[in-house]
Design a protein that fits this description.
about 300 residues, globular, binds S-adenosylmethionine, 7-stranded mixed beta sheet, 12 helices, 3-stranded antiparallel beta sheet, alpha/beta, Rossmann fold
Amino acid sequence: MSTSNRNAVRRSSTEIAVNDVMREFAFSDVDFRSLAKLAHDHAGIVLQESKRNMVYGRLSRRLRVLQINTFRDYRKYLATHERELESFINSLSTNHTKFFREAHHFDHLCGNVAVPYTKADGHATSGRMRIWSAGCSTGEEPYSIAAVLNREISDIERCDVRILATDIDTDVLAKAARGVYAANAADDVPAAYRSFFEVRKSNECAAHVFIDHDVLKLITLRQLNLLRPWPFKGLFDAIFCRNVMIYFDDATKAALVERFTQQIKPGGWLYIGHSESLIGAHRGLELVGSTIYRRVA
Ligand SMILES: C[S@@+](CC[C@H](N)C(=O)[O-])C[C@H]1O[C@@H](n2cnc3c(N)ncnc32)[C@H](O)[C@@H]1O
C-alpha cells in the first residue's frame, strides 16, 4: 500500500479525532454549549449537538476577521464587546428563502386580502392595510407580497397600504434594501408577476434581477428581534412568519404565536412555514387551509 493510501485509511478510521486535531481554532464542549446558550437566550435559536460543525464553520469567519485564535477567547470577546453580538447572531441565523416560496400563500393573500380590499367602498381614501413579514430574510418574501398587492390594487399609490419586513439579522436586511438578486432568482416567479422582477445587466456586471420601484416602495425594512417587545400601534391584516419558528423550541413558539394572534385584526390571517405546526389548538386562531390560520373575533 502506498504511503498516501495508508494515510487515507488512517484518516477515515480516526475521522472524529482527526477532525478535532485538524481544526484551525480550539473549540471545546464548553465553547459550543456556551455559544449555543447565548444564541438561545438572545434570539430563541436552538442549536442541537448536530449543529456543532455548522457553528464552528460559521463562527470561524468571525475569529479570522477579529484575529482571535481560540473560541475561548472569542467568548471573552463577546462578553466584553456588546456590538459583536450582532455579528454573532448574523453568522448563526439561517436565511434560506426565495420568491413566491409556498405559492399557495400568495394565492390566498390575493383572493382574501387584496381582492376584498379593492371591493370595499372608499378603500383609496380610508382603507388601511398592513402586512407584516416577520423574519423576512433577504426580502424575497415581502417583495412577493408587494407584487401581489401591486398587481391587484390598481390605484395602490393612493392607498394606505404598507408592508413591514423585519428580521434580526442586519446583513440580510442590507441585501433586502438593495433589491438586487442573482439572475436566476426569479425563475419560479409566476408569469403574472414577472414584470415586477426585471432581469437586466448593470454596467459591466452580469445580469441580475432588479425589483420594480413600485414594489420596493411598499416595503419598510426594520431590524426586530421577535423575542423582544414589538413597537406596533395598530393591528395587521396578515402576518407571514414562515420558516422562522422552526428554529425555536416549543415554549418560545407557543409564546410567539400568542403574541402574533393579539397583533392580527379579527378576521385577519397568519401564514406559517410548511414544516411548522402550531402546538395544539390556539385560542383565537382557526386553521383554514394548509399552514393558514384566521384570527377569530
Ligand atoms: C429561513 S429564513 C425565512 C425567510 C422567509 N420567511 C421564508 O420563509 O422564506 C429565517 C429568518 O428568521 C430570522 N430570525 C431568526 N431568529 C429570529 C428572531 N429571534 N427574530 C427575528 N428574526 C429571526 C433569521 O435571521 C432568518 O432570516
